[in-house]
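Reading a protein record of the kind used here takes only a little practice. The integers have meaning only within a learned vocabulary of local backbone shapes. With that in mind, consider the following protein and its fold in token form:
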Amino acid sequence: MSLIETIIRSDVREREAYHVPESGGYLKLDAMENPWPLPEVMQQQMGDRLSHVALNRYPIPNYMELKAKIREKLGVPPGYDVIVGNGSDELIAIVSTACARQDRRAKVLAPLPAFVMYAQSAQFAGMDFVGVPLKPDFSLDMEAMREAIRVHQPSILYLAYPNNPTGNLFDTEDMLALIEAMKDTGLVISDEAYQPFAQASMMPYLPRYPNLAVMRTVSKLGLAGVRLGYMSASQELLTEFDKVRPPYNVNVLTESAVTYALDHLEVFNEQAAMLRAEREMLSAALNALPGVQALPSSANFILVRLENADAVFEKLLARKVLIKNVGKMHPLLENCLRITIGTPEENRQFLESFRACVAQPV
């Protein structure tokens, strides 16, 4: 038996690492990033600010200034605090670690298709993941969800709001009904990574439901490179999650950059508004193409369904256009491609290439 077989878990050996495709030289519309860089004045100001950060010192472990800025600027209800992480991925891992009980096999529930890290973090923490397929229109199958809660009694239920990769917002009353159904058994996490483009949130419901947490990231807002996620919940929950948070998990450059950026939140809000307008334009243009269906989206991407999606995807790659082929993620996504909203010029270039690829015979 080899060293790897001796020391590495079999389920880890059987997995592949998270794949990020090479994007150099491509029109990059695959990762739901904000396409605009910081304005030049902000670049200069942030550069000056970061140059004075004490890189020789560890971060202040409670992140008091950063958390206060998040509470002030990002709609956290009065009296509620946040926990911060190195992206929302780390927050998911923190929650999984805290909830992976040793006296019984705890379970994580989510509708499918959904963000892959829900299932992966559950597996790595030693929890079972239970997926419940959405309806064909990507709405929640409430009967199946209620039955899964009754049978499995999950410790965690993830509801992405809007959902990735489908882009739609689940019905608010359905969300509230599931939070109510989980009140005696587990935590419901509203994953609001795309909230700047949906302008809808479960944050106002935190005081009503002690088993609700709201998780967000600044990545989609326009700061994907600094990797910061935050989550608000009752103080009792945050206290427990903080016990398994790695010390100094957010670095001083990220802390300083995000604190500065939130003082200029209006810039990012304007960019989000432009992306919402571009989303509607691009959706209408895609729906006007024969055989192409652009699904309604409240995120900064559009899911499209078309025949021969694999062939169109390969043709786009040949033209140096990178989007996401999600067709193999779940049966409901067969022949689906996900397109990130870019700048007006990027969207124009994409549409030109996409029209040509769809029109080409297979």
User: Anything to note?
Assistant: The first strand starts at residue 27 and ends at 28. The CA atoms of residues 43 and 293 lie 39 Å apart. DSSP finds 15 helices and 13 strands in the chain. The mean pLDDT is 96.
